[in-house]
Amino acid sequence: AQTVTQSQPEMSVQEAETVTLSCTYDTSESDYYLFWYKQPPSRQMILVIRQEAYKQQNATENRFSVNFQKAAKSFSLKISDSQLGDAAMYFCAYRAWGIQGAQKLVFGQGTRLTINP
Amino acid sequence: SAVISQKPSRDICQRGTSLTIQCQVDSQVTMMFWYRQQPGQSLTLIATANQGSEATYESGFVIDKFPISRPNLTFSTLTVSNMSPEDSSIYLCSVGEDSYNEQFFGPGTRLTVL
């Protein structure tokens, strides 16, 4: 079974600085998706960024980028120019690829990010 | 994309009672998912609900405790039966399609059992 591990329960960063959240996963599949979701106090799960495993290029969305190391099964999230609105729980998630009905997400334990003004 | 609403947004219930949570989607979707998020924890999948078929439950979750209905392609319900304080959690509905690149989540239902 696939597993996702986030080893940092909490992180903090000064506003405008850069922070990196770690995620490792375990799978025997060669094709899959990886995601970072953000959950602010409102509870709403918000997709931050997505990476397809077959793509060598790291995904980027504005201030958010990932460092995807397939061989090492590592998928870290870098947040640049941190803003107060980035404060939230961040979840790394795995999803199988191309298997009919295998849409379910496997989540890591989460990292609580605090932004210090 | 899909917009998802859940009812109720929160509830406080007594031990031994049951609560039914509704999930409504603004478009037709094949697959709907129910997740549980216990206090301070991550999300754990309870079951996958496809229209026209029985829900598929994950290990540790049973139909008698968490019966699910999926009467059409835009609606599903999750019932938490014979509740105990250990059932106090946030319950989230989500939807996904094979053609989607992401899952979309509802706002969650915060359940407190006294």
Notes on the structure:
The complex is a heterodimer of chains A (about 120) and B (about 110). Chain A is an all-beta fold. Chain A has strands at about 5, 10-15, 20, 25, 30-40, 45-50, 60, 65-70, 75-80, 90-95, 105, 110-115. In chain A, the strands form 3 sheets. In chain A, strands 2, 5, 6, 10, 11 and 12 form a 6-stranded mixed beta sheet that branches. In chain B, strands 2, 4, 5, 6, 9, 10 and 11 form a 7-stranded mixed beta sheet that branches. In chain B, strands 1-3-8-7 form a 4-stranded antiparallel beta sheet, with no helix packed on it. Chain B is globular. The interface of A and B includes residues 45, 109 and 110 of A.
Task: Give a summary of the structure in a few sentences.
The complex is a heterodimer of chains A (117) and B (114). By secondary structure, chain A is an all-beta fold.
Structure characteristics:
heterodimer, A: 117 residues, mainly beta, six-stranded mixed β-sheet, four-stranded antiparallel β-sheet, 12 strands, globular, B: 114 residues, seven-stranded mixed β-sheet
| Proportion of beta-strand residues of chain A | over 45%
Low-confidence stretches of chain B: none
> Which structural class matches the secondary elements of chain B?
mainly beta
Amino-to-carboxy terminus distance of chain B: 37 Å
- Tally of DSSP β-strands of chain A: 12
Q: How would you state the average pLDDT of chain A, rounded?
A: 92
Q: Residue share in helices of chain A?
A: under 10%
